[in-house]
Amino acid sequence: MGIYLSAPKTDKASEDGENDKLRFGLSSMQGWRASMEDAHAAIPYLDQTTSYFGVYDGHGGKAVSKFCAKYLHQQVLKSEPYQAGDISTSLQKSFLRMDEMMRGQRGWRELAVLGDKIEKLSGMLEGFIWSPRSNEANDGVDDWAFEEGPHSDFTGPNCGSTACVAVIRGSKLIVSNAGDSRCVLSRKGQAHNLSKDHKPDLEAEKDRILKAGGFIQVGRVNGSLNLARAIGDMEFKQNKYLPAEKQIVTADPDVTSVELCDDDEFLVVACDGIWDCMSSQQLVDFIHQQLKTEDKLSAVCEKVFDRCLAPTAGGEGCDNMTMILIQFKKPSSPNVSVTNQPQSSSQPPETDRSSEKKVEPK
């Protein structure tokens, strides 16, 4: 069967939620792929005033995408820049922090538990044997202490994941992206890309790859990876004389800040399984059409998958698919009960965030 199944798995894992500012729906589908390597995080209350939505498209395995879904938003929330009101810097540092956390024995163990069944069993046994106390597995996220024992010299995973994250606080939208998952804003029916697909043939990416000692062959980094930025993929990050931002492949994200207005209707965060089949404008048009008759946002995501799914294995429409659709509530809309409770009740202090870069969508 290779990397494809004999028939696609079209079961969809879907969810809907809301707070007083927005409502969202999401769905994911394995499709023709032999395994599901996507992961996501949808948190309407990262704190009392902030929402967080992330899509993580894994490659070479599912461990890194699941690691990001478990830990990336925690790092954002607990970072010093976030506590000071600087969301952009907190996102940038947290993306790079993922690579640091996945090294060493604890990183190996966490990835093993999140990975495939054989790796999971091995990782759980290793964790119980070598962890100081097994009930501390998720404690001290910021400290992430080095642990002695097997795999202490683990340099990190060779599988990897994209990460496309949208953070919303008041009228401010901050998008952080590494890889080819994409965030698109619908403003008065027009699609505005708020992220860039980090492909190796982009001039800035190509320049960094070549300077770091890599090469591009048939559109792939070192003839292997079709992404220029990703979390994980540590085989491309071994130059000890270069900072993380200048490695052949980097987790350093592009961060864009946008002021939302009354013309903004909805936001889409989705993996390339969608964008391989539809342009940003085609997807925005399709969603507008579906919203005329469908109120449940997760159902709209599911219809997108059905529209994109290839009839036979091979080519476009055969990838895993994950999509989050966020619809902004208008100020005149009445408040509704919250269906998803916040994961943290902490609230960052009100500070001047005028230093954050503001970029109008193009």
Walkthrough of the structure:
The chain has a single domain (10-103, 155-311, 319-328), classed as 4-Layer Sandwich (Phosphatase 2c, domain 1). Helices cover 27% and strands 28% of the residues. It has 9 helices and 15 strands. It has helices spanning 63-78, 80-83, 87-101, 104-114, 117-130, 203-211, 272-275, 280-291, 297-308; strands spanning 4-18, 22-33, 38-47, 50-59, 160-161, 163-169, 172-178, 182-187, 190-193, 216-217, 220-221, 231-232, 254-259, 264-270, 321-328. Strands 3, 4, 5, 6, 7, 12 and 13 form a 7-stranded antiparallel sheet that branches. Strand 10 and strand 11 (220-221) form a beta hairpin. Helix 8 (280-291) crosses helix 9 (297-308). It is globular. The termini are far apart.
How would you summarize what this structure contains?
The protein is α+β, with helices and mostly antiparallel strands and 362 residues long. The chain is 27% helix and 28% strand. The chain has one domain: PPM-type phosphatase domain (Phosphatase 2c, domain 1), CATH 3.60.40.10.
Give the SSE layout.
Elements: E1 4-18, E2 22-33, E3 38-47, E4 50-59, H1 63-78, H2 80-83, H3 87-101, H4 104-114, H5 117-130, E5 160-161, E6 163-169, E7 172-178, E8 182-187, E9 190-193, H6 203-211, E10 216-217, E11 220-221, E12 231-232, E13 254-259, E14 264-270, H7 272-275, H8 280-291, H9 297-308, E15 321-328
Antiparallel strand pairs: 1-2, 2-15, 3-4, 4-5, 4-6, 5-12, 6-7, 7-13, 8-9, 8-14, 10-11, 14-15
Helix pairs in contact: 1-3, 1-4, 4-5, 8-9
